[in-house]
Design a protein that fits this description.
This is Methyltransferase type 11. InterPro entries: Methyltransf_25, SAM-dependent_MTases_sf. Keywords: Methyltransferase, Transferase. This protein is an alpha/beta fold. The protein has a single domain, classed as Vaccinia Virus protein VP39 (Rossmann fold). About 45% of the residues lie in helices and about 20% in strands. The protein contains eleven helices and eight strands. Strands 1, 2, 3, 4, 5, 6, 7 and 8 form an eight-stranded mixed β-sheet that branches. Strand 5, helix 7 and strand 6 form a beta-alpha-beta unit. Helix 2 crosses helix 5 and helix 4 runs parallel beside helix 5.
Length: about 240
């Protein structure tokens, strides 16, 4: 995975949410959570795994909705922040954070109804093998996001210190088929890249988001989106 050493430092973990999801970044956080909830539906008593859970944004949110959820991450510092967030939300007694490698998940086959991987595949050096491992432990569903090739993200990408892997739709379809998954739902959003929103104060970011929504609601929206949310299900035999 790209950027593993950077990602695991305590300094990055402590500032992660503030730098990415405050001010204009709040709009990204809200949209990503909306996309996850739309894909997974009701989660009460559903066994869920989130890989690369980071500070537990989605893990805690789904635990609050009744999911039986495990958040797995390679960074102890990120997991510590996740535990703080779960305690603050009052759900630390019915979720689990654990350290682990997404390439070798420590769970048996078909162990979870749903597996979630947000903000993961843009850093995956071998996406096919990672997706196959997610599918192995999923009994029904794998939900993940990717950054889109041929979008404003490709212009912004070179500015990032780690870079990001970008995907065309054909690549996603090939990856899903290779992992024994089929596409059940998809959403595409954000003409303007995430990095722009993070640089803007809340009021200005809200105005940019209004313009973004107009573009995304137009006939060209799907084709110029910088982010895609994929809802994949196991292929029927």
């Amino acid at each position: 995975m790209k950027g593993q050493e950077w990602y695991q430092t305590a300094e990055v973990a402590e500032e992660y949410d503030t730098k990415r999801f405050s001010d204009g970044g709040r709009l990204i956080d809200e949209r990503e959570k909306e996309a996850v909830l739309s894909a997974v539906g009701p989660v009460d008593d559903k066994r869920v795994l989130e890989i690369a859970c980071g500070t537990g944004r989605f893990t805690t949110m789904l635990a609050q909705r009744g999911a039986d959820i495990v958040g797995l991450d390679i960074s102890p510092a990120m997991l510590q922040e996740g535990r703080k967030k779960a305690r603050a939300a009052g759900v630390d007694d019915h979720l689990e954070f654990m350290r682990g490698d997404a390439a070798r998940l420590p769970f048996p086959d078909d162990h979870f109804e749903t597996v979630i991987a947000m903000r993961f595949f843009h850093l995956a050096d071998t996406p096919a093998s990672f997706l196959a491992e997610l599918r192995r432990v999923a009994r029904k569903q794998v939900v993940f996001d990717t950054f889109r090739r041929f979008s404003t993200r490709s212009i912004y990408n070179w500015l990032l210190p780690m870079g990001s892997r970008l995907y065309a739709r054909a690549e996603i379809e090939e990856l899903l088929d290779g992992a024994g998954l089929q596409l059940a739902g998809e959403e595409h959003d954000f003409f303007f890249p995430y990095g722009l929103y993070r640089q803007l104060p809340d009021a200005m970011a809200t105005r940019v988001r209004e313009l973004d929504d107009v573009i995304m609601d137009s006939p060209i929206g799907e084709y110029v989106a910088s982010v895609s949310y994929w809802d994949a299900r196991l292929q029927e035999e």
